Amino acid sequence: MKLAKNLERLGTESAFSVLAEAKALEAKGNPMIHLGLGQPDFKTPKHVVEAAKKALDDGHHGYVMSNGILECRQAVTRWIKKRYSVDVDFERILIMPGGKPTMSYAIQCFGEPGAEIIHPTPAFPIYESMINYTGSTSVPYDLTEDKDLKFNPEKILSLITDKTRLLILINPNNPTGSFVEKADIDVLAEGLKKYPHVTILSDEIYSRQIFDNKEMPSFFNYPELRERLIVLEGWSKAYSMTGWRLGWSFWPKELVPHVNKLLINSVSCVNAAAQFAGIAALDGPDDSINEMMVKFTERRKLIHEGLNSLPGVECSLPGGAFYAFPKVIGTGMDGSVFCKRAMHEAGVAIVPGTAFGKTCQDYVRFSFAASQDNISQALENIKKMLSK
Fold first, then answer.
1. What pTM does this model have?
2. Where in the sequence is the domain holding 229, given as residue range(s)?
3. 154 and 39 share a domain?
4. Do 115 and 199 fall into the same domain?
């Protein structure tokens, strides 16, 4: 077979490779604590599940509109209004099978040889993978230059050229757990006014996982940028719906027909029952989110203090999401060696920093979407490993 060259430029998501290796060890009788995947360990709220069951019972079994059923898109606009006091046109909302299609379609809309796309590193790996796949030039801004792993708005603005087409922002960030507050977002938004040729892709999928009662500085709150704004959001993290494959995104008006064609050419539509579940989630109570954040706050404290107590390990305090991204080079190991030993000697599955960017060889990612007992045991196991 003679394959297309661009397939060689396509990357993957290493967290799933870590999971596969850990599961193989488990199958051989080795105990394993899973702190690799970014998946809340809570159940989908009952009223959301019941809405999906009702949709099936009511006969919603067939194809629906490629951009999402009207009721679901309207529910998204109600949620945006309630959360950010912003009115948006439901025609600019597209319902997606998860968050990845928004990443992929946005980069496909702008990426081609000669184009530049600015993105964070470390970052969710699909971003750089898709940039490379399109043949466009990857222009990273390195979060590891900051002790708290936050982006610098002035640094981002300095990277913009006349070839820049898309700027990618992830806040709160996966994998670092860093959170950039409104004051810095204000600086960035003000600077972006000078570059009308740059479209912004704001990944806000962790907007409901922010600590210390801080507010989410959504790009919805900058009306002067809204005509060149893409917002990636969804249900996976906030409502523990990772397996439902349900996401939504907001698009510039002129991009909507193009992205709708990409949807039709790739997935046809998102299944109807999941969309009715999504409506129930957005219109329903936030009790499950609030309860989840109480648990995540306790776990954040546990893992932050525990990691910093390990010899040679340094970890900044996560401001959002449910990840810790410690620097482990002080142990005498880089991140890849640390992860390999943690899995095989300590029975703890975590992800090396290089899964999220080339500059992150000294780091590893811990997901604290696990019970406090498992986190405590994982830290104890790694402490014993480091004492050998």
1. 0.95
2. 47-283
3. no
4. yes
Residue 362 has which token pair?
């000294």
3-class DSSP state for residue 234? strand
Strand, coil or helix: what is 212? coil
Residue that is written with structure tokens 């105990």 in the block: 31
Claim to verify: residue 92 and residue 114 sit in the same structural domain:
yes
- β-pairing, 364-367 vs 351-352, is antiparallel
Query: Are the C-beta atoms of 76 and 93 separated by less than 8 Å?
Result: yes
Paired tokens of 80:
């945006």
Do 161 and 53 reside in the same domain of the chain? yes
Q: Indicate if 37 and 51 belong to the same structural domain.
A: no
* 295 and 232 within one domain: no
Helix (H, G, I), strand (E, B) or coil at 365: strand
Q: Where are the extended beta strands (E) located within the chain?
A: 33-34, 93-96, 116-121, 137-142, 164-170, 199-203, 229-234, 247-250, 323-324, 348-349, 351-352, 364-367
Let me know: does 107 contact 130? Beta carbons within 8 Å: yes
Residue numbers of the chain with a pLDDT score lower than 70: none
Rounded Cα distance between 90 and 316, Å, is: 39
225 vs 234: CA distance, rounded Å: 21
Phi and psi, residue 306, nearest 5°: -65, -45
Q: How many residues does the chain have?
A: 388
Q: Count how many domains the chain has.
A: 2
230 shares its domain with 308: no
Task: Please check whether residue 196 is in contact with residue 227, taking contact to mean a CB–CB distance below 8 angstroms.
Answer: no
Contact 362, 354 (CB under 8 A): no
